[in-house]
Amino acid sequence: MNTPMRTLAAQAQSLFDLTLTPEQAAAFDTYAALLVEWNSRMNLTAITDAEGIQVRHFLDSLSVATALPRAGNLRLIDVGTGAGFPGLPLKIVFPDIQLTLLEATGKKLNFLREVCEALNLRGVEFLHARAEEAGQMRDRRAAYDVAVARAVARLPALLEYLLPLVKVGGYALAMKGRTAQAEAEDSSHALKELGGQLVAIDEIQLPALDEPHYLVRVEKIAHTPNPYPRKPGMPSNAPL
Ligand code: SAM
Question: Is 84:59 a contact under the CB 8 Å cutoff?
Answer without folding.
Answer: no
